[in-house]
UniProtKB/TrEMBL annotation:
Residues that span the membrane, as ranges: none
Protein name: Solute-binding protein family 3/N-terminal domain-containing protein
Keyword vocabulary terms for this entry: Signal
Entries under Pfam families matching the protein: SBP_bac_3
Domain (Solute-binding protein family 3/N-terminal): residue spans on this chain: 41-269
Keyword RNA-binding listed: no
Keyword Signal annotated: yes
Length: 276
């Protein structure tokens, strides 16, 4: 145990020096990074229902963009990675506050409300909600604008924040028919594929993945319903951990790691670290 603790402390000082950290009074009183090094495990809360950010692979393991980025971070820390699947954002927040996880990933929105409650990382992805329809082989679509979807069948994921955005948008206000809510996004997209829905609301990042990697015949109509950016959420007192991971993200942007992971899962480089 003493040997393990010694090497943990040695690794901690190595990480701090490599990321340019200064050992100050705040750092001494903040054990968030040291705690992970000593226990030899980074625990990340992810939502496994939003591919390609995070999802269950055919082997039953959690895969996706978040998994790959978290693995690189864990490797840089020299610790093991454990992904905790938690679909509900409320449950992920509860796990963070109860110290069941070290930070929240998988599409945690960077906004003023969340910034007041949590310590947010550098925004690493930009996303938006878009309305998607099927297009024919010649590239034409039956629906080209929101007004074409009046009284039509529209599907949306069951996420409450997404539902509220849709209900306040021109898509719903001008529609006159309540959207169908799906607990699993893949089931919603299957319904679109088989003409059981006329349109769906989905994240632009997922859309990129579907059209570039899976070659789905989808098309976005009109402007996005909203525009957001994603950050990792930490406990307010875990500043050392947040600073270290921010430094890692910057390094990963510089050496092309984020670009490679983004292209793998979205078909394009949509990462935003160091770009804005």
């Amino acid at each position: 145990m003493k040997i393990k603790s010694f090497f943990g402390i040695f690794l901690l000082f190595t990480i701090l020096s490599c990321t340019g950290h200064q050992t100050d009074k705040a750092g001494i009183n903040d054990p968030s990074l040291a705690r992970i090094i000593v226990k030899n495990e980074l625990v990340v809360g992810v939502d496994p229902s939003i591919p390609p950010l995070s999802f269950y692979s055919s082997t039953g393991a959690i895969a996706g963009y978040e998994s790959d980025v978290a693995q690189v971070i864990a490797d840089k820390l020299g610790v093991k990675l454990r992904l905790v699947p938690i679909t509900s954002i409320a449950d992920r927040i509860l796990e963070l506050e109860n110290r069941g996880i070290d930070y929240i990933a998988s599409g945690f929105i960077n906004n003023e409300t969340n910034a007041e409650r949590f310590l947010l990382s550098t925004p690493y992805l930009r996303d938006s909600l878009v309305v998607v329809v099927l297009q024919s082989m010649d590239g034409t679509t039956t629906f080209n604008q929101f007004s074409d979807l009046r009284n039509k069948r529209i599907g949306i994921p069951s996420d409450q924040d997404m539902f509220e955005v849709v209900m306040k948008s021109p898509l719903y206000i001008n529609n006159g028919r309540r959207p169908y809510r799906y607990s699993r996004q893949e089931n919603m997209l299957l319904a679109l594929d088989y003409d059981q829905l006329d349109a769906v609301v989905m994240n632009l990042l997922t859309y990129y993945s579907k059209i570039t990697i899976e070659k789905k015949p989808y098309k976005v109509i009109e402007d996005p319903l909203n525009i957001t950016s994603y950050s990792y959420a930490f406990r307010k007192e875990d500043g050392e951990l947040a600073k270290t991971i921010n430094a890692f993200l910057t390094d990963m942007a510089r050496d092309g790691t984020l670009r490679a992971i983004s292209t793998k899962w979205f078909g394009a480089d949509v990462s935003m670290v160091g770009k804005y």
